[in-house]
């Protein structure tokens, strides 16, 4: 888990993709952006190797990004075969802001206490339309049951746009 009790990630400014005035972004600033972001893009891999990308909502909670999906949806089917995913978020402009990329493994969350905590986080962030019950190791809402996945960052990238700079964070590295 990546949180205040975990060692900080190894942080590196990637100079070949950065302007001279750029500095490495602090991970705490990235966490603030991940917490506030409303829309993420999830990239998964189909069983035949073709990519699949879809927008979704997610919450940063206890050191990881958490999202939900119906078990018959393409992303859930892809994760069942290959849990390696990428979540991206940022701003849709060339100048200003910071885009973030989080790489990791999507692990299913089934513990009722953790799911209740995540359900509360969804409602707090996105409002009453995103209220879930917890039942049988899943969220249950208006659209039926939804599997919940957690992605703890293994590697993350920040792309600042003013000055332009690329930061890489590596987690669990010695």
TrEMBL record:
Highest taxon of the lineage: Bacteria
InterPro entries: F420H2_bilvrd_red/Heme_oxyg, Pyridox_Oxase_N, Split_barrel_FMN-bd
SUPFAM superfamilies: FMN-binding split barrel
Keyword presence, Cell division: no
Pfam families: PNPOx_N (PF01243)
Ranges for domain Pyridoxamine 5'-phosphate oxidase N-terminal: 29-138
Record's keyword terms, sorted: Oxidoreductase
PANTHER family: HEME OXYGENASE HI_0854-RELATED, PYRIDOXAMINE 5'-PHOSPHATE OXIDASE-RELATED FMN-BINDING
Name of the featured protein: Pyridoxamine 5'-phosphate oxidase family protein
Species for this entry: Streptomyces albipurpureus
């Amino acid at each position: 888990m990546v949180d205040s009790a975990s060692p900080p990630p190894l942080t590196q400014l990637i100079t070949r993709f950065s302007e001279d005035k750029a500095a490495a972004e602090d991970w705490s600033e990235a966490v603030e952006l991940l917490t506030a972001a409303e829309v993420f893009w999830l990239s998964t891999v189909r069983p035949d190797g073709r990519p699949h990308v879809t927008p979704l909502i997610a919450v940063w909670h206890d050191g990881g990004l958490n999202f939900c999906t119906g078990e018959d949806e393409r992303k859930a089917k892809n994760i069942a075969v290959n849990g390696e995913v990428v979540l991206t978020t940022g701003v849709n402009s060339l100048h200003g802001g910071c885009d973030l990329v989080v790489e990791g493994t999507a692990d299913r969350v089934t513990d009722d206490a953790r799911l209740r905590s995540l359900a509360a986080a969804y409602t707090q962030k996105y409002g009453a339309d995103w209220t879930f019950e917890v039942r049988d190791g899943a969220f249950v809402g208006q659209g039926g049951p939804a599997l919940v996945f957690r992605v703890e960052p293994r590697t993350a990238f920040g792309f600042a746009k003013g000055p332009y700079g690329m930061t890489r964070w590596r987690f669990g590295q010695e």
